[in-house]
Amino acid sequence: MPPEAAFTVNEAGAFAGALRRARLGRRLSQLDLALACDVSARHVSFLESGRAQPSRDMALKLAAALVLPLGARNALLQAAGFAPIFPASPLTSEALGPFRAVLGEMMARHDPNPALLCDRHWNVLDANVSARALLGALAGGGGEVNVVRLMTEDSPGAALIGNRAEVLAELSARIALEALEAGGDPAFDDLVRRLDAACARHPRPRAAAPRAPLTPILIDLPEGRLSFLSAIAQFGTSEDVTVRDLRLELLFPADEATRAAMAARA
Q: How is 16-85 classified by DSSP, letter by letter?
């Protein structure tokens, strides 16, 4: 008996709904997906209606054609009744110990400039000393922090962003692309809705001149304005879901005044 045989009992409709959500999240028709998988559009229609059930190989083929992230591929397999194939190790696990040490060194070396470690949905998992101080000011000393929710809520902390409309517009474009890549992820749908509403409340002013090539993040603190440029690193040399979903955001001083202020904080 093959190892996946124990997982062939599929909850009725689970795969059909998951496949349809992923396809619509990719803005693909059934014919588009059928051509990518070299099957008939009729077969895709039967899979989405629950009239047909996929083999393990077919589920993987559909996930690959949809270019789903690893976690979503696991979810599609499980919806079809099969075991996931991509590991999802907890960040605190022994298996990720060496990787965690590399992350810690990168974040420590980035001090006195802020560094944030986030998951796929931009929940902050870790931060270096300077980033924790900055988040304390922006989040009002709250516990769990989500970068998107922090930027979209009309709170005293969000009001410290001096160019909030521009930052929201840039963030909205980034998250919309990540939501498209995720393929029908409800958590991303919520983030997109929050950003759309925030952008409507804080519209970006029409530029009278060509826009600058870089949009800094301006943060107004009691001691003065800080200006940062953001760089986001991802890790693509692993088939572990946790590793592939991480984002390491590094903030760099955009002017000499901010560089001096961060050095003084250190």
A: HHHHHHHHHHTT--HHHHHHHHTS-HHHHHHHHHTSS---HHHHHHHHHHTT--HHHHHHHHHHTT----
Report pTM. Answer: 0.83
pLDDT, one tens digit per residue, over 115-161 is 999 999 999 999 999 999 999 888 876 666 899 999 999 888 889 99
Residue 184 bridge partners (DSSP): none
The answer to whether 115 touches 106, Cβ cutoff 8 Å, is yes
C-alpha to C-alpha distances, 145 to 22, 137, 152, 157, 247, nearest whole angstrom: 28, 12, 12, 12, 14
- The DSSP bridge partners found for residue 230 are 251
Residue 141: the pLDDT is: 62
d(CA 92, CA 153): 30
> 70-100: per-residue pLDDT in tens?
999 999 999 999 999 999 999 999 999 999 9
**What domains are there in the chain, each with its CATH number?**
3-79 (1.10.260.40), 94-163+207-265 (3.30.450.20)
- Cα–Cα distances (Å) from 125 to 117, 131, 143, in that order, read 6, 12, 11
Q: How far apart are alpha carbons 72 and 181 in whole angstroms?
A: 10
- pLDDT score of 2: 34
State CA 179 to chain mean position distance: 8
Q: Find the helix packing angle between 164-182 and 14-25, rounded to 10°.
A: 130
Determine the Cα–Cα distance for residues 127 and 228; give it in Å rounded to an integer.
16
Q: Strands, E, within the chain: which ranges?
A: 115-118, 124-127, 217-221, 224-233, 247-253
